Structures are given as structure tokens and as C-alpha cells.
From TrEMBL:
Pfam families in UniProt: ChlI, Mg_chelatase, Mg_chelatase_C
Statement: the UniProt record of this protein carries the keyword ATP-binding: yes
Residue stretches making up the AAA+ ATPase domain: 212-395
Origin superkingdom: Bacteria
Record protein name field: Magnesium chelatase family protein
Presence of the UniProt keyword Nucleotide-binding in the record: yes
One function term, GO molecular function aspect: ATP binding
Matches recorded under CDD domains: AAA
Family statement drawn from the similarity comment of this UniProt entry: Belongs to the Mg-chelatase subunits D/I family. ComM subfamily.
Chain ranges passing through the membrane: none
Length: 510
């Protein structure tokens, strides 16, 4: 007899419904699984057989064929254990077909019949909802994330036995419910700008970067606080909206990185991959494509500490996603796209030993070593970083002083005000912040005062700027004016923006 059970499959972050067709017929005992299953999926056969036997069900000594349709879509991971087991129970008359029709099933089985959590439940449940399937059976461990999909009944199960009793009407399971908005309103993450002593100019630059969504490069000697500052950037960015939090959560669900007890990612991500990271780790992809660090930093901060130490091909691969806010990964079965709209914060020492230009310690590097070191950061990448910043070592007086810095919550208020101006400027959809303005928008929205115009003309000639640098400078000036609530960009705004590009002439001459 033929049984049909519903499940879902993902392609990138989007998905579609999968029909699990199970046929049990007379013949030599066998168990075939077809329909483009990957390795983890093929191993379902062994898990399902053991789980059914150990849960006290009859496992048919007949010919079993399981087809995952449509057959042209790759089925990944162990999440089809549950629908396959249910299909066999229906095909052998241990469950009624009509009892399973309305549900979508997702879950891995352990050999003793327990239902194990799997990665990617939230995007799978959203895919089901898109097809108007509004009842899903998921592992208990994934119930909270599944329930983030609104208007879907989520039935958490612990074991195949419990599920079967539920489907036979012998046991009640009440749908799992969460109030996602309640989850969203949770406090900060601890690392506060109040901990940073002194460093007024650096704090200011961080605020400007946050206000306009500008990428940032910090150059400074060891111990000057670059890492400390970068970690505090997410805390001065605007609070996440629910939609943003859900987008991030989908990515973390897919990567299997949701923490137990925290179904919704409510803080802006901060990712700091090591400089030995591979292109796949950073960008995403691989044989079983996973989102990379740049997607895990979506709506948050990607911190690349010791930027010159990263592999060249990795840095080059960053360029396109930085520009587009999404990353496309090509695969045999077609390209998948993951979101990657992030703020890049990069840090570097001024030279291999770290002390170039330090008033207190002497640099031991040769000019050739210095040039080679920073030269590893290519011009095109440098061009995508709006703000270049020197981070001097903090003054002893500042560090020893008792005076705490301004807290993140206060800075965030100014950032949010500037972001509101930008939201109104660009309207709903499309451009989200000044850093992402198109060249046409730069021309339209960056009107300069007369004084600012003549300053720009002289700077442009003196610094020998590329057209791209010119636009970057205007975008930063736009943000500085927004922080002040000024419609027109004044000379003072532009002068500050010019400063944020002045390291180029010093460290990357020619
Ligand atoms: N402005 C500051 N206020 C308070 N503490 C500071 C400040 N700057 C640095 N520190 C202290 O110095 C420590 C080292 O800073 P951090 O690790 O951020 O430096 P870094 O610039 O990243 O150094 P490296 O180049 O070695 O990575 C911090 O953990 C912090 O305790
Ligand atoms: Mg550091
Ligand atoms: Zn040096």
C-alpha cells in the first residue's frame, strides 16, 4: 500500500514542500530511498528501522521503497527520519492515512525512538506556511523556534511512540506557543562604551560609523583598545526590529547555532573569525552549503582583527558581498543566496611589530616590511571602507582616571535619531542607510554649502581621490550632518569626513 506524508526541503533560506511517498509491497525484504537524498539522509534507513523496532512497532520484512518528491531537489540532513517512519506506519496499516494528512513532519530519530532536534527548523516551517500548511510536528528541542512562525500550529514531540499515540487520538499534545515580541524586549549584552576611558576622537568615529552604517578600519598599536571598541559597536546600533531578528534567526537556525532557551536572536550579531579562516568559512558554501561568517553577521558586525593576516583570496571574496549586502554561492544544483548586510570593522597594527609611529617605543621593522604588511589590504577593499581611523594608545591619565565614558544607551539615542532621518530620506524598502547610497543618491542627497564645495575641490586635488573615494567621503559627511540634524552639508562636516580618509596618503601612498 502507498502512503504519502508531507515534509519540507530547503534551498538556501527558502524552501518547498516535499512529499514522502512510501510503498510497501511483497518481495524480498529491502529498503530503498530515492529522490536525491544526501549521505545523512540516506542513513535514515538504518535509524528508522532501529527506532521503529525499539519503539515496539512492526517493521515489515517486505520490499520498502521511499521516494522524496520532487526528485530534482536535493534532500539534506536527517530531518526526514520522522516523515519516513510515519509513512511506513501508514503503509503497513499501523496508522490511518487520514490521521497524518494535515501535518508536516520534521525530525531526526535516535535508535531508541527518541526524536532529536535538527538544524533549519524555522526556515522549513516558514516554507510550509508559505504553502498554506499550518500544522507542523517538530522535535521538542526545536518547538520554540518553530513557533516564531506566526499562525502555524506547532506540535512538539519527544518520541516516535508519543507521536503515534497522538496521531491515533490516544494522547493530547497542545500546540507550542511563544510571544515573539515578548522575546524581543530583552536587555543589552553587557559590553558598554562606558568602559572605554578617554579616546574621544575614536569614540566619535565609532558613533559616526554606527549612525550611517559605514565600514570602519582601525589602525593602532597592540593594546590600544581596537578589539575592545569593536565589541562595543553592536551596542550602539539601533535595536533590531522583529523582522530583522527573524531574518537573523533563520540563518542561525540553518547553521544549527541557535542556543537552547533562546529561540529568537535578539542582539545584533558580532562575529570575529580568526585570520586563518578559509574562504568557505567566511563567505559560506562547501559540500553541504552553510552560511558563512558574513551571513552570521547579517544586521550586525563582522570584525576582522589583524586584517593584513587574512588570506588574500578570502579578502577578495569579501568585496562583492560588501557591495551587495547578499552573498551568492554557486553549487552543482544552482546558486543559493544568503543575506549578508553587515558592518565591517577591521583592525590592523601599523606595521608587523606594531609600534610604527609610537611615541614611546621604537619600531623595528624595515620600510619594506611595513609596506608589504599594509599592502596586503588591496585598494579595492580599502575603497569599500568609508572610515579609516588611527587608534592611539590611551593616555595614562585617562586610563587611571575614575571618569567612566558616556554609556552606550546615550550614544545609541543619537544614532537612532540620525537613522530616522535616513529612513525618511530614502523611504521604505531600498536603501537602508547612508553607507548604502547609490551614486545617483549621493548626487541627489549630498548637497554642500558653498564653503564645503570649495573645500571639497581643494581636497580632491590634494589627495588625488578616486571617484569612489569621493563618494565615500560625501556619504560620511552626509552622516555627520545627519547627526547634527543639518539638511545641508557644511564645511565642518566635510572636514571631519576628510580626516577619516587621511590615513590613505600616509599608509598606502601611490
Ligand atoms: N580606552 C581604554 N579604556 C579602558 N581600557 C582600555 C582602553 N584601551 C585599552 N584598554 C584595556 O586594554 C586591553 C587591551 O585592549 P585591546 O585588546 O582591545 O587592544 P587591541 O588594540 O585590540 O590590541 P591588539 O593589537 O594586541 O589586538 C583591554 O582589554 C582593556 O582592558
Ligand atoms: Mg585586538
Ligand atoms: Zn614596526
Amino acid at each position: 500500500m502507498l502512503a504519502i506524508v508531507k515534509s519540507t526541503a530547503l534551498f538556501g533560506l527558502t524552501g518547498q514542500v516535499v512529499q514522502v511517498e512510501v510503498d510497501v509491497s511483497n518481495g524480498l525484504p529491502s529498503f530503498d530511498l530515492v529522490g536525491l537524498p544526501d549521505m545523512a539522509c540516506r542513513e535514515s534507513r538504518d535509524r528508522v528501522r532501529a527506532a521503529m523496532k525499539n519503539s515496539g512497532f512492526e517493521f515489515p520484512a517486505r520490499r520498502i521503497t521511499v521516494n522524496l518528491a520532487p526528485a530534482d531537489l536535493r534532500k539534506e540532513g536527517p530531518l526526514y527520519d520522522l516523515p519516513i517512519a510515519v509513512g511506513i506506519l501508514v503503509a503497513t496499516g499501523q496508522l490511518e492515512q487520514s490521521a497524518v494528512d494535515r501535518y508536516v513532519f520534521l525530525g531526526e530519530l535516535s535508535l531508541n525512538g527518541q526524536v532529536r532536534g535538527v538544524a533549519g527548523v524555522l526556515p522549513n516551517v516558514l516554507a510550509a506556511r508559505e504553502q498554506d500548511l499550518r500544522a507542523v510536528v517538530v522535535p521538542r528541542d526545536n518547538a520554540a523556534e518553530a513557533a516564531l512562525a506566526r499562525e502555524v500550529e506547532v506540535y512538539p514531540v519527544e518520541s516516535l511512540g508519543q507521536l503515534t499515540r497522538f496521531l491515533r487520538g490516544e494522547e493530547q499534545i497542545s500546540p507550542y506557543e511563544v510571544d515573539p515580541l515578548l522575546l524581543l524586549n530583552r536587555g543589552g549584552n553587557g559590553a558598554d562604551m562606558a568602559d572605554v576611558r578617554g579616546q574621544a576622537a575614536v569614540r566619535r568615529a565609532l558613533e559616526v560609523a554606527a549612525a550611517g552604517g559605514h565600514n570602519l578600519l582601525m589602525i593602532g598599536p597592540p593594546g590600544s583598545g581596537k578589539t575592545m571598541l569593536a565589541r562595543r559597536l553592536p551596542g550602539i546600533l539601533p535595536d533590531l526590529t522583529f523582522e530583522e531578528a527573524l531574518e537573523i534567526t533563520k540563518i542561525y537556525s540553518l547553521a544549527g547555532l541557535l542556543k537552547p532557551g533562546e529561540p529568537l536572536v535578539t542582539q545584533r550579531p558580532f562575529r570575529s573569525p580568526h585570520h586563518s579562516a578559509s574562504a568557505v568559512g567566511l563567505i559560506g558554501g562547501g559540500r553541504h552549503p552553510r552560511p558563512g561568517e558574513i551571513s552570521l553577521a547579517h544586521h550586525g558586525v563582522l570584525f576582522l582583527d589583524e586584517l593584513p593576516e587574512f588570506h588574500r583570496d578570502v579578502l577578495e571574496a569579501l568585496r562583492q558581498p560588501l557591495e551587495d549586502g547578499v552573498v551568492t554561492i554557486s553549487r552543482v544544483s544552482g546558486a543559493v543566496t544568503y543575506p549578508a548586510s553587515l558592518m565591517l570593522v577591521a583592525a590592523a597594527n601599523p606595521c608587523p611589530c606594531g609600534f610604527l609611529g609610537d611615541p614611546a617605543r621604537e619600531c623595528t621593522c624595515t620600510p619594506y616590511q611595513v609596506q608589504r604588511y599594509l599592502g596586503r589590504i588591496s585598494g579595492p577593499l580599502l575603497d569599500r571602507i568609508d572610515i579609516h581611523l588611527e587608534v592611539p594608545r590611551v593616555d595614562y591619565e585617562d586610563l587611571a582616571g575614575r571618569e567612566p565614558g558616556e554609556p552606550s544607551s546615550e550614544i545609541k539615542k543619537r544614532v537612532e535619531r540620525a537613522r530616522n532621518i535616513q529612513r525618511q530620506r530614502f523611504g521604505p524598502g531600498g536603501t537602508s542607510c547612508n553607507a548604502r547610497m547609490t551614486p545617483a543618491q549621493v548626487r541627489r542627497f549630498c548637497s554642500l554649502s558653498r564653503e564645503a564645495r570649495s573645500l571639497l575641490a581643494s581636497v580632491f586635488r590634494r589627495l588625488n581621490l578616486s571617484a569612489r573615494s569621493h563618494d565615500r567621503m560625501l556619504k560620511v559627511a552626509r552622516t555627520i550632518a545627519d547627526l547634527e540634524g543639518s539638511e545641508v552639508i557644511e564645511a565642518a562636516h566635510l572636514a571631519e569626513a576628510v580626516q577619516y580618509r587621511s590615513l590613505e596618503a600616509r599608509y598606502w601612498p601611490g
